[in-house]
Amino acid sequence: MRKRAALALSTAVTAAAAGVIVPAAYADDNVGDIQVDGVVVNGGKNIVVDAADKTITVSVTATDPSGIWDADFNLWRGPDGSDPYYSADALIDPNETTTPADCVASSSTTSTCSKTFTFEPDWWLTNADAGTWKVQAQVSANDGSYTDRWAYTTTRLQRHSKLTVNASPEPIAKGRTLTITGKLTRANWDTLDYRGYTNQPVKLQFRKAGSTTYTTLKTVYTSSTGSLTTTALASEDGYWRWNFAGTTTTPAVSATGDFVDVQ
After folding, report:
1. Structure confidence at residue 253 (pLDDT)
2. C-alpha–C-alpha distance, residues 73 and 233, integer Å
3. Which of 90, 113, 186, 191 could make an S-S bridge to 159, C-beta 3.0–4.6 Å?
4. Beta-carbon count within 10 A of 31 CB
5. Would you say 90 and 20 are in contact if contact means Cβ atoms under 8 Å apart?
6. Can you tell me the mean pLDDT for 35-41?
7. What is the pLDDT of residue 27?
8. Per-residue pLDDT for 84 more than 60?
9. Which residues of 175-213 are buried (b: 16+ CB within 10 A; e: fewer)?
10. How far apart are CA 142 and CA 67, in angstroms?
């Protein structure tokens, strides 16, 4: 049985059990001279998760005349009228503890504090979780100064994508018709595998031998199973590929070019 089946309680109750306070109102707070220089999630990249666990780092750089003492983060989404309050820090194995922040001083006044978060498809992550998440940052100074911002920045959580291509027949006589097929799939966090991404526009591209640039020839939509198929005339040696621009929930991906020898 999936671990996720044990999460029958609401996310608010789960958060409370894990020691995370679910706020009635999201009010920023700042006391003293502390200054936040920046918050970085996953090195500035989207969080792309396949069918296995993904651990990322969130960090904050802050300055205070007395020096930085500690920091904490919360990755969350909602409420926006449809989503409940939903904390990645709370939705962990109750037998484990959350990861504390690690602060490294670069001077007597400035430190960078980091904390890791693990997104677990086999524990709490579902397909519905893909999209934009907010990042709360709390930083405390040695003299008691602190800052707390509920949505300092945002990050995008995405389902990992794959794209294949096959151009045939090969070799082929010049002027004959090639058939180019492929498939666009993405991680399914509910079933822990990959499933076809339906009704998505994917570009067919060609790069002639000796060139480094792909040219888009047409756009084809994926089938109900994520499959792609089209035809094109073979005119010269080169590489054929599919290119997907991505969506808010799924990253862009390009297939590795398939070389076709035109004789």
Report:
1. 98
2. 55
3. 186
4. 12
5. yes
6. 96
7. 74
8. no
9. eeebebebbbbbbbbeeeebebbeebebbbbbbeeeeee
10. 6
